[in-house]
Amino acid sequence: MRTGTRTRSAGRGRRTRVAGAALLGVALLAACSGGGEDTDGAAGDAAEGTEAVVEEEPEVPPAFAAEPAATLTEEAFTPPMPAAVLGDAVFLADHTGLTRFDAEGTETGRAEPEHPVIHVPDTIPEDSLDQAQAGVRSVQTPLAGEVNGTPVVFSGFPVQLPAGEGLEIIAADAGTGERVWNAAFVPEEWGAAPPRVSASTSLLGYHDDLLILQIVKDRMMSSTYAVSVPDAAVAWSDTDAHFALAVHEGVIIARQIVDGGLMGPLTGLSPVDGSVVWRKADDDTNGGAGFGPVLRVGLPGGLKSALVSTADGSVLVTDEDGLPTGSPPCVHEPTTDVVMCGADSGAVAVDADGAVLWSLSRDDEGWSGVPVGAEGGIVFVDRGEDAPPVAVNAADGEMVNEDSGVAPALFGSGFGVVRDGPVLNLHPRAD
């Protein structure tokens, strides 16, 4: 059963009302061409302020070509999305660099670290468990930002520095793909104990010329760093007190590390200096993944999740509000600031304040599936091999296209990027 406020679905035919004054002119013209018969009646009816409805052509439903224009990679084996879109370009990260592709999928540039990259696997098992056992480091999602006012895409790599094993963050120019900036440092906790197997860097956010990083060593030990882009140097670090999860509206959402490494209560940190802004002392949730204004967390027992506010950690939505059980995939639609979470068992959408806009259960008629990506008020949903993907209005859950061709995860100027296991394909728009 859908609940919450319902609004008119995007993509339907629009109706334009024409005022009585305009209709009066039409009526007089018709009267003149018809020999003047019944002129008073036509003019009188129009003068009374009646309105006519003129149907316009319906908007073309959002869709993408079912067949790809290009394959960007067949080796995106590690779980995070290794790509980012900026304007008319796709930036694909791998273990040794960052490659730029244009809107047709043609490689147009590449940026690599200045220093030698370490922990480069000879082979990458396709199964994530095998990757963990083999110590394969994850290729993390690149992050869009700026260097001296120039749009760039950042990515991080473990490298060999003169002082020992460390990290190098690079920035590729959005237009050329060439490296235009880099910053390298040895994390302070690596001095006596460098990574034995692997290290990875998650770029969580960009705030007032500060890059917020979460560094994971040997898939276990973690620390939070802020790198000043103008100075190309570390601004501050939090090496053992918090595990950062996301950055939203000037706050780092993290978990306090307690009892020798366990994840404790949700905490808000200042990106300027890492100081504590708020802490939810009575928090009994676990984990956390950020989606704009909300964080999806696990509840005690391990079978249910909740959406909590990034502003203070308060619980906003649970399964009682329509959130599917387990850890349902979620997407953030930035145009409307709506977050939608869904699975085959149902879906729910909330606004920036956490208010439920609508929910959909397994028993309802209509669509069901996994939200993959969102753009322009529309969420694209993958329904598996037995049904075509659909496009859904984020604000009310109404289906606006029964077959969107594919369900992209990323969107650029005239194209979408679709992930099919380890394969990333570029699909042109069809609408």
UniProtKB/TrEMBL annotation:
Q: Please name the Pfam families in this protein's record.
A: PQQ_2 (PF13360)
Supply the SUPFAM superfamilies for this chain. Quinoprotein alcohol dehydrogenase-like
Q: Which PROSITE patterns match?
A: PROKAR_LIPOPROTEIN (PS51257)
Locate the Pyrrolo-quinoline quinone repeat domain: which residues? 163-281
Q: Where are the transmembrane segments?
A: none
Q: Cross-referenced InterPro entries, in alphabetical order?
A: PQQ_rpt_dom, Quinoprotein_ADH-like_sf
Protein name, entry field: Pyrrolo-quinoline quinone repeat domain-containing protein
Taxonomy, top ranks, is: Bacteria, Bacillati, Actinomycetota, Actinomycetes, Kitasatosporales
